[in-house]
User: What shape does this take?
Amino acid sequence: MCKKLAVTGLAIVAVLFVLHKLELDIWIKHWVKQTKTDIKNSIPEEARLDDLRDEIAKIGPEIKKARIVVAREIGDVKELRDEIEKIKGNLAKREETLRELDAKLDATPKATKVSIGKKEFDREDVEADLNRQWVSFKQSKEMLQAKEDLLKSREENLNVAKAELQAMQDKEAELTADADALSLRLRKLRLAQTQENVQVKSNHLTAAMQKRDELKKQVGQGEVELTLKKGTDTGSTVADALEQKAKADQVRKEMKDYLNKDSKLTKTDK
Assistant: This one.
């Protein structure tokens, strides 16, 4: 009975251990995944923009390699096209020669000698030579056809390569323009965010200015109250009193200046 209990207990412990390990693995996987997501989300937009520009910059060397490949292929295709034109020209001359020899043989079917230029040749030799030229001509025609097929294939491949190169260049220009546009949008976003932060500070500044004005008002009221306590006339200020005194002094001075002079009226009375 004790052995059964011990075995059962060990089995339960083993199961709990396995379950615990499985749950721990699940938690670790979740933590790693979440950490990667958090790190990815924490990357600032400026860093992502720099990374985008770095990736766009890598397109340039690839385009340069593609241009070299296309330029080399253009040269090879042109060379093959020129070669085909030369072969066609040579075949045209050889075909004309075959026609002339065949016509000479047909013109003298019973003659044992055939005149070619200023010389005469045995008919059998001319016929044998004509047959050899014909076989060589047919082989050259087959070679020409093969080269024309090759030229067609390479021209098609060249057109595809040109289209791919143009697409790469267009995409690079598009990506560069998008990066510039995103850079401008990001700068505007940062400016807007900065202005939003400044707006928060402006609210505090406004509050401080209001408190200052209230304080000025209170201080002014205190000064007025103090003046009233001392019995000062509230109908005029010190500045008004000084101004009135200055005017009175000026009037008195003008009068004295007039009286101290020999006025015309005084002389007439005498």
The two ends are 161 Å apart (CA to CA). DSSP finds six helices and two strands in the chain. The chain has a mean pLDDT of 80.
